[in-house]
Amino acid sequence: MRKLVIAFFVFTLMLGGISVAAYAADCSKDNPIDQAGDWFATLGKQGMEKDQILVKRKADRVAVCTKKQAEEAAEVAKKAGNDMKKKLGF
C-alpha cells in the first residue's frame, strides 16, 4: 500500500512537470525561413487573399509544432513512468 501511495504522488508530480516542458518552445514565433516562404506564397496576392494565405500557413505551422511537442512530452512521461516502475519494483 505504501508503494502505491508513493507511486501516486510521484506520478502527480511528473504530470505537473510535463506542462513546463510542453511550453518550453514558442510555436507562435516565425523564423526567417518561414517568413521567406510566406513571402513567396503571397507574391502577387493582394488584400484579403494574402491575409487568408498567411493565417492558414501560420495555423498549419503552429499545429505541427504543437503536435511535435505533445509527442515529445508523451515520450518523456512514458520514460519517467517506466523508470519509476523499475525503482519501485513493479
Describe the structure.
This protein has 90 residues and is mainly α. The protein is rod-shaped, with a radius of gyration of 21 Å. It contains three helices and no strands. The relative contact order is 0.16. It has helices at 2-22, 32-41, 47-88. Helix 1 (2-22) runs antiparallel to helix 3 (47-88). The chain starts with a helix and ends with a helix.
Query: The biggest beta sheet, please?
Result: none
- Let me know the number of strands: 0
Number of helices: 3
Radius of gyration: 21 Å
The dominant shape is rod-shaped
N-to-C order of helices and strands: HHH
Strand content: under 5%
**Percent range for helical residues?**
over 70%
Please outline what is shown here.
The protein has 90 residues and is an all-alpha fold.
Task: Describe the protein's topology.
Layout: H1 2-22, H2 32-41, H3 47-88
Descriptive terms for the model:
90 residues, mainly alpha, 0% strand
